[in-house]
Amino acid sequence: MNVCVFLSAADLEPRYTEPAREFARLLGAGGHTLVWGGSETGLMKVVADGVQETGGRLVGVSVEFLRAKARADADEMVVAADLAERKAELLRRSDAVVVMVGGAGTLDEATEIIELKKHGLHAKPVVLLNSAGFYDGLEQQLRRMEADGFLPLPLSELVHFATDGAAALAYLQEHV
Predict the structure, then answer these.
(1) What is d(CA 25, CA 35) in angstroms, rounded to the nearest whole number?
(2) By residue range, what is the domain housing residue 29?
């Protein structure tokens, strides 16, 4: 399975890095491929290291202005012209999507992936890995959107919230 992971390139606390590392190790040990932003920094590095250390493949999709931060030992590295092209390429190369903790860029990626799924432009399972309750507020907002009629599909058809890496991977394996 090729799993796209959207996540931060920042150095973060263990409450965020440990769940990410757990998921990465499970992904690699299962023989799966990580499709990610290609960075050799922060949480992106933690996840890539975990996948690679346990036998998984790395397919990076960097962007021209971040080329210098791309991981040199990825199995494959693509450099997109801009962020929009990068997101499209990440989605194209994946069978499923996991959104881990991150900043505004990760939130942008998460909402775009959900929006594309809402419109039927992809049918890939999407999981938000809610490490340390990071996405509690987003889950509450999405549930309100659903309750108030803003979503044409049930939220459960658009995104799944997982509390740990094992639950996230189990959901993906069941739905790919």
Answers:
(1) 14
(2) 2-175
